[in-house]
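Now for one specimen:
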Amino acid sequence: MQRREFSFSAATLAASATLGSAALPALAQAQASAPAAAFKSGRDYLTLDKPAPTEAPAGSVEVVEFFWYNCPHCNAFEPMFDAWAKKQPKDVSIRRTPIAFRPDFEPQQRLYFVLEGLGKIDEMHKKVFNAIHVEKIQLNTADQISAWVEKQGIAKAKFMELYNSFTVSTKVRKATQLQDAYALDGVPALGIAGRYFTSGTQARTLERSLQVADALIAQSRIKAK
């Protein structure tokens, strides 16, 4: 979703949400066959004027997925991105970054970073999306979130200790700085190598944004040599 409004049509969202496992091989084949020359800066992706900070080790290409748990487009994109991420080679470093376009987004940023600190992203990330978009549970405040995670078997006291910790506060600050460095205007979106930005809006579909990301990863490898 964009900062001010949803940017995808209902048809695009429906197509994204229904991309099943049967379509993934075709998507992967299309990604692999799409050369960098097929995509243009300013049309399919943006090239940053000033590189954004990265955390990837030397020799790796970083891909950052920006998301917001309440965003229906991020919910639709999650299975696509997850399948794509699992197929990336070892030199592609992938991380997720929860965004905050407004102060009231921050509790969900903290939720993600607490789950990360507890080593429970693999177990809980999809459950958060499902709770919000399928079960229609409100997870917008610290009280709502802590009550929900306790039902998932996470000790409330430990969760809140990390939720209010300096470590999580620092990660929230850095996440917001990173979204600003990429001049983020909507989610889901992808930052590549600290130099490029694409999204479903920029690339015109969520599926195509992954093809653009593949091309930019390859382009970044060439530039690094």
Q: What stands out?
A: The chain has one domain: 45-195+206-224.
